[in-house]
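Fold this sequence, please.
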Amino acid sequence: MNIRDLEYVIAVADLRSFSKAAAHCSVSQPTLSLQVKKLEESLGVTLFERNNKHVLPTDIGQHIVQSARRVLQETDQIKELATSAQDPLAGRYRLGIIPTLASYILPDLVPLVKERLPELRLVFAEDKSEELHEKLHNGTIDAAFLALPLHDSFLTAEHLFDDPFLLAVNASHQLADLSCVGTGILNQHSLMLLEEGHCFRDQALSVCELLGVGDRTDLSATSLETLRQMVRADTGITLMPQIAISEPDPHIKYIPFLGTPPFRSIGLARRKTPFRQEVFNILCEITANAFGGAKASHAE
């Protein structure tokens, strides 16, 4: 058994096809099939059910594939440790990021990181908060941009910046003529929010609960851009994070809140270990410097 054999097994399990797995691994199908067969013989078990139409892992095959994934992760970790020992600011660094943040900071952030850390190769994983927590726990990623606080004793985080919320309404809405609103206005209107599982939904609901509004949402969406389109269509109103507002839109009015606005806090989280600490610190510095100031919003 060797690492390459485990890569073949994982590819077959993921792609459900020996031919596709062979292409993915850049080997001939006979070579891949032979190696998988030899592995089965050496282990004394059948890893895959095969017929003319389907390739499916057996029960024991599924367990072995899971173990193989862990072995490859540990192998990658060994390579990363060796690379970082030679140059702590080089090699691959796996960053998770929540969907309500990814498209709004990465286009500006990545060039800044490349300029400061030219030998670092960033690999991004965009996912919901719960999944990113799990990936941090199992070592699939090295750090993650998340909303704070964490409530996770296994992790630690550095606060980067606060992202205020604005009220987004259609330009023809009865509130559109206001230059600013009090948070009490949320008592009089139902909000459109993201579907369950998004931390931004939880943040918005927390704002509502603090005001005694409760969950009065009528509609939910899968992304901030879907919410924006729903506001544009005058389907309802919503809270929009300031960082997601970059261009003026004649069909939407973004109204700031009076006084201290509701906001979300963004941080970079990692496991409580010294692994790649210097890279983590520099990423925090770059991100805080780039987004720590108030981002210009377009209320007109």
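The chain has nine helices and eleven strands. The first helix runs from residue 3 to 15.
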